Amino acid sequence: MPDGARFDTVAVVDWSAAATPRRGADSIWIAVADDGGCTVENVPTRRAALGAMAALARPGQRTLLGVDFSLGFPRGTAQGLGVPGVPWAGTWRLLAGEITDDERNANNRFEVAHRLNASMSLGPGPFWGCPPSRATAMLTATKPPPRAGWPPEWRHVEADLRGGGRRPFSAWQLLGAGSVGSQSLVGIAALERLRWNLGSRIDVWPFTTGLGVPAGDAEVVVAEVWPSLWPNAAPTGWVKDAWQVEATAVELLSRDRRGGLAGWFSPALDDAVATDVVEEEGWVLGVGGAG
Q: Residue 229 is part of which domain span?
C-alpha cells in the first residue's frame, strides 16, 4: 500500500433485493480494485455475495467496502420501533432477526415492512411500495399520506443531496425504479450477519468508527456509497450496474492514493446532525467532506 493510503483494496457492491437468483441487470455486482487493477463479478444470490464480502477480510490487509443501500433510517425510527440501546444497532439486530433470506433469494421483506409499519403507525406507512397483490392494511402499493409522529421522510444526508439538486430515494420506498428501501432491509440484515461472523475484523462507518478516518485494526470498513455522485454513462455493451461499481471503486481507490479520501470520512456537520448521523442515520461517503 503506498505511503499515505488508507486502504489496500476498495470493493463496491451494487446490491439487489431480487426474490430469485439473477444475473445481469438489476442483480448483484461486486467490483474489487487495488493497485493491480479492477475486477468485476456478477453473483446471482445474496448468500453468494455475503461469502464474497466475507472473503475481503484478510489478515494484514485493509479493505474499504462500499455498499449502495441505506445503512440507517431517519432519526426516530428506532424509537418508533421500540428497540432498545443505540438506535442503529437495535434496528440492525431487529432486521437480522426478522428478515429471512434463503440460498435462492426468497425473502420476506414485504411481510417485515408490514410488521414494522404496524409498530410505528395506526395506518399504512411509513414503509410503502409493494406489488398490489402483497398490499395490506399496513403496507400499500402507493405512497400514503404522512401521519403525525412518523420519523422524517429523509435522512440528513438525503436532505443535503436534495438541497444540492440531487434526487436520492427515501429508505421508506420499497418498490419502483431507483428505490432503495427493499435493498436496505435485506442488506442491513445481511451486514449484521456478516458482523456476527467477522466480529472485530469489521467496522461500519460512521456507526462503529465515529465520524473521521476509521482507526483500529478492522480488516474491512463498510461505508454507504451512492454511485450517482459520479455520473458516468456506461459504455455501449456494458450493464449500467457493472459499470457503476467499477467506476466507483476506481474513483475511491484513486482518491485514496492521492490522499483525498480521508476528508470524506469527516463531513462538516453541526453537533446535533452529527449525533443523529452516528447514532442512527448513517451518511454517504463523499457528501460534504473535503477532498
A: 9-71+204-281
Number of domains in the chain: 1
Residue whose cell numbers read 436520492: 168
Q: Give Cβ neighbours of residue 3 (< 8 Å, ≥ 6 apart).
A: none
In a domain, 256, yes or no: yes
* Euclidean distance between CA atoms 32 and 35, whole angstroms: 10
**Alpha helices, DSSP H only, in the chain?**
46-54, 77-81, 87-98, 109-120, 156-163, 181-198, 240-257, 271-276
Q: d(Cα 283, Cα 260) in Å, to the nearest integer? A: 18
The answer to whether residue 103 is domain-embedded is no
The DSSP output letter for 173 is B
Q: What's the residue count for the chain?
A: 291
d(CA 221, CA 214): 8
* Exposure string for 38-58, b = 16+ CB within 10 A, e = fewer: bebbbbbbbebbbeebeebbe
Counts of helices then strands in the chain (DSSP H, E): 8, 6
Query: What CATH number did the domain enclosing 244 receive?
Result: 3.30.420
**SS3 (DSSP) at 253:** helix
Instruction: Write the Ramachandran bin of 160: left for phi over 0, alpha for psi from -120 to 50, otherwise beta.
Output: alpha
Flag whether 166 is in a domain. no
**Does the residue 102 lie in any domain?**
no
Evaluate the omega torsion of the peptide bond into residue 151 and state whether it is cis, within 30 degrees of 0.
no
Alpha carbon separation from 43 to 18, 22, 184 (Å, rounded): 12, 8, 18
Q: What is the pLDDT of residues 82-103, one digit of tens each?
A: 999 999 999 999 999 999 999 9
Would you say 88 and 207 are in contact if contact means Cβ atoms under 8 Å apart?
Answer: yes
* Residues in contact with 155: Cβ distance below 8 Å, sequence separation at least 6, in sequence order: 70, 72, 73, 74, 75, 171, 281, 282
Q: Report pLDDT digits (tens) over 9-60.
A: 999 999 999 999 999 999 999 999 999 999 999 999 999 999 999 999 999 9
